Amino acid sequence: MIEISLLPEELRKKERIKVAMPEIPIKKTLFISLGVLASFQLLFTLFTFFLYTQEISLTKNVVSLKESSKDVIAQKEEAEAIYNRLKEIRSVVSRKFYWSELLSSVSNSATKGVWLRNLSVTDQGPKPSGSDKASTEPQSSDKDKKAAKDMYLVLE
Fold this sequence. Notes:
mainly alpha; two-stranded antiparallel sheet; rod-shaped
Protein backbone atom coordinates (compact mmCIF):
# COMPACT_ATOMS: atom_id res chain seq x y z
CA MET A 1 0.00 0.00 0.00
CA ILE A 2 1.07 3.44 -0.79
CA GLU A 3 0.76 6.16 1.74
CA ILE A 4 0.37 9.68 0.65
CA SER A 5 0.58 12.51 3.09
CA LEU A 6 -1.49 15.48 2.24
CA LEU A 7 0.10 17.70 4.88
CA PRO A 8 2.44 20.39 3.67
CA GLU A 9 6.11 19.60 4.10
CA GLU A 10 6.61 22.06 6.97
CA LEU A 11 4.10 20.24 9.10
CA ARG A 12 5.18 16.74 8.31
CA LYS A 13 7.25 14.71 10.73
CA LYS A 14 10.77 14.48 9.66
CA GLU A 15 12.86 11.51 10.21
CA ARG A 16 15.61 12.08 12.67
CA ILE A 17 19.08 11.54 11.50
CA LYS A 18 21.09 9.51 13.91
CA VAL A 19 24.47 10.91 14.66
CA ALA A 20 27.02 8.30 15.25
CA MET A 21 28.90 9.14 18.42
CA PRO A 22 32.18 7.43 19.00
CA GLU A 23 32.46 5.29 22.07
CA ILE A 24 33.98 7.34 24.91
CA PRO A 25 35.86 5.21 27.41
CA ILE A 26 34.22 6.29 30.67
CA LYS A 27 36.66 4.52 33.00
CA LYS A 28 39.71 5.96 31.28
CA THR A 29 38.29 9.51 31.34
CA LEU A 30 37.31 9.14 34.98
CA PHE A 31 40.82 8.02 35.97
CA ILE A 32 42.45 10.85 34.03
CA SER A 33 40.17 13.50 35.57
CA LEU A 34 40.74 12.09 39.08
CA GLY A 35 44.49 12.12 38.44
CA VAL A 36 44.38 15.75 37.33
CA LEU A 37 42.31 16.74 40.38
CA ALA A 38 44.66 14.87 42.73
CA SER A 39 47.70 16.56 41.18
CA PHE A 40 46.06 19.99 41.60
CA GLN A 41 45.25 19.14 45.21
CA LEU A 42 48.85 18.08 45.80
CA LEU A 43 50.18 21.29 44.24
CA PHE A 44 47.87 23.45 46.36
CA THR A 45 48.87 21.55 49.50
CA LEU A 46 52.57 22.02 48.75
CA PHE A 47 52.01 25.72 48.01
CA THR A 48 50.13 26.12 51.30
CA PHE A 49 52.96 24.39 53.20
CA PHE A 50 55.49 26.67 51.48
CA LEU A 51 53.50 29.77 52.49
CA TYR A 52 53.23 28.49 56.06
CA THR A 53 57.00 28.02 56.36
CA GLN A 54 57.56 31.51 54.94
CA GLU A 55 55.13 32.95 57.48
CA ILE A 56 57.01 31.29 60.33
CA SER A 57 60.38 32.60 59.12
CA LEU A 58 58.95 36.11 58.63
CA THR A 59 57.48 36.04 62.13
CA LYS A 60 60.91 35.16 63.54
CA ASN A 61 62.46 38.00 61.53
CA VAL A 62 59.86 40.45 62.86
CA VAL A 63 60.61 39.43 66.45
CA SER A 64 64.36 39.83 65.97
CA LEU A 65 63.88 43.20 64.25
CA LYS A 66 61.71 44.40 67.12
CA GLU A 67 64.45 43.45 69.58
CA SER A 68 67.13 45.19 67.54
CA SER A 69 64.91 48.24 67.07
CA LYS A 70 64.75 48.58 70.86
CA ASP A 71 68.53 48.99 70.86
CA VAL A 72 68.33 51.49 68.03
CA ILE A 73 65.62 53.48 69.84
CA ALA A 74 67.73 53.55 73.01
CA GLN A 75 70.77 54.74 71.03
CA LYS A 76 68.64 57.37 69.32
CA GLU A 77 67.36 58.69 72.65
CA GLU A 78 70.92 58.77 73.97
CA ALA A 79 72.09 60.65 70.89
CA GLU A 80 69.25 63.16 71.28
CA ALA A 81 70.18 63.68 74.93
CA ILE A 82 73.81 64.28 73.95
CA TYR A 83 72.69 66.65 71.20
CA ASN A 84 70.51 68.62 73.64
CA ARG A 85 73.36 68.84 76.13
CA LEU A 86 75.73 69.97 73.38
CA LYS A 87 73.20 72.59 72.36
CA GLU A 88 73.07 73.91 75.94
CA ILE A 89 76.88 74.00 76.09
CA ARG A 90 77.00 75.90 72.80
CA SER A 91 74.50 78.44 74.09
CA VAL A 92 76.59 78.95 77.24
CA VAL A 93 79.84 79.21 75.30
CA SER A 94 78.40 81.53 72.67
CA ARG A 95 77.59 84.22 75.27
CA LYS A 96 80.38 86.74 75.40
CA PHE A 97 81.76 87.19 78.88
CA TYR A 98 84.48 89.68 79.55
CA TRP A 99 86.54 88.98 82.66
CA SER A 100 88.10 92.41 82.48
CA GLU A 101 84.69 94.08 82.95
CA LEU A 102 83.88 91.81 85.90
CA LEU A 103 87.19 92.36 87.64
CA SER A 104 87.00 96.10 87.00
CA SER A 105 83.52 96.28 88.55
CA VAL A 106 84.67 94.21 91.57
CA SER A 107 87.68 96.51 92.02
CA ASN A 108 85.55 99.64 91.74
CA SER A 109 82.92 98.38 94.17
CA ALA A 110 85.42 97.27 96.85
CA THR A 111 86.19 99.77 99.60
CA LYS A 112 89.69 101.16 99.78
CA GLY A 113 92.08 99.18 101.89
CA VAL A 114 90.23 95.83 101.33
CA TRP A 115 92.24 93.24 99.51
CA LEU A 116 90.91 90.04 97.98
CA ARG A 117 92.75 86.88 98.94
CA ASN A 118 90.96 84.48 96.61
CA LEU A 119 88.70 84.71 93.58
CA SER A 120 87.08 81.49 92.31
CA VAL A 121 84.08 80.34 90.30
CA THR A 122 82.24 77.27 91.57
CA ASP A 123 79.02 75.51 90.86
CA GLN A 124 78.28 75.21 94.59
CA GLY A 125 77.03 78.05 96.73
CA PRO A 126 79.36 80.01 98.99
CA LYS A 127 80.96 78.00 101.81
CA PRO A 128 79.80 78.70 105.33
CA SER A 129 82.13 80.90 107.31
CA GLY A 130 84.88 79.08 109.19
CA SER A 131 85.49 76.31 106.65
CA ASP A 132 88.65 76.84 104.64
CA LYS A 133 88.64 73.67 102.54
CA ALA A 134 86.15 72.76 99.84
CA SER A 135 84.04 69.68 100.45
CA THR A 136 85.20 66.49 98.77
CA GLU A 137 81.73 64.93 98.35
CA PRO A 138 81.08 63.53 94.89
CA GLN A 139 78.51 65.53 92.98
CA SER A 140 75.33 63.87 91.79
CA SER A 141 74.13 63.98 88.23
CA ASP A 142 71.46 66.54 89.22
CA LYS A 143 74.20 68.88 90.39
CA ASP A 144 76.04 68.32 87.10
CA LYS A 145 72.94 69.36 85.22
CA LYS A 146 72.55 72.48 87.34
CA ALA A 147 76.27 73.31 87.04
CA ALA A 148 75.85 74.92 83.65
CA LYS A 149 73.01 77.09 84.98
CA ASP A 150 74.09 77.93 88.56
CA MET A 151 77.62 79.31 88.77
CA TYR A 152 78.79 81.30 91.80
CA LEU A 153 81.59 83.82 92.10
CA VAL A 154 83.23 83.42 95.49
CA LEU A 155 85.32 86.33 96.81
CA GLU A 156 87.45 85.84 99.90
